[in-house]
Amino acid sequence: MTFSDIFKKSFLEGFDSRSINTYTAVVALLLACAIGLYIFLLYRVITRKTFYSKTFNISLVGISVITAAVIITIQSSIVVSLGMVGALSIVRFRTAIKDPMDLMFLFWSIVTGIICGVGLAEIAIILSVVLTLVVLLLDRLPVAKAPLMLVINASDLDAETKILDIVSKNSRSYTVKSRNMTKSSMDMIIELRTSEGPTILRNVMNLEDVLTASLLAHDGEVTF
Fold first, then answer.
1. Would you say residue 197 lies in a domain?
2. Which residues constitute the domain of residue 123?
3. Structural contact between residues 190 and 152, judged by C-beta atoms closer than 8 angstroms
4. Which of 85, 119, 139 is the last residue of a domain?
5. Is 35 in contact with 65 (CB distance < 8 Å)?
6. Looking at 139, 172, 201, which one is the last position of a domain?
7. How much is the average pLDDT of 143-151?
8. How many structural domains are present in the chain?
9. Confidence bin at 35 (pLDDT 50/70/90)
């Protein structure tokens, strides 16, 4: 027996191959699917309607089941596991993740499949309960309120003083983010923090030189 044969024998014997029967596989896949459906419902509840993607949400369930099937398969033989790693290494995913929360749900779905595939579904259930409590608590925790954006179009180039006077009297703070002037008009964008948005908008529109005014709210990142 050569050194190569001894090395291969020791390497293969170092892994405990498991005999996976049909019942065990079906139970693991059903548990992964059940937890994946739970992730599907939670994602739909907490995701903003504007950015909700049904196809991405459905894929979360599929990823849980597929990952569980892969883990079940590679437990039967180290040779199969190495071959599957090689086959999966050629896959390239080019879909951009636009929301960090989507990345969390995607990783949650993959981990659920892995845990269910190795037969530790109770850990996946505990993980789901804890993660649900954390996500719902932090999602409803009032950290800071995003500022409003006041967009104004005026026909008088000297209207800025009157506009800023109204804004300063009805807001806690404000910053002029943009000024765009032509020979006959002026556009302004003002970032402000206030609870008197309708009052500001109404007073600005009462100015003779203001043509249009819009007050925009957003759910973007808050800058402190």
1. yes
2. 7-139
3. yes
4. 139
5. no
6. 139
7. 76
8. 2
9. very high
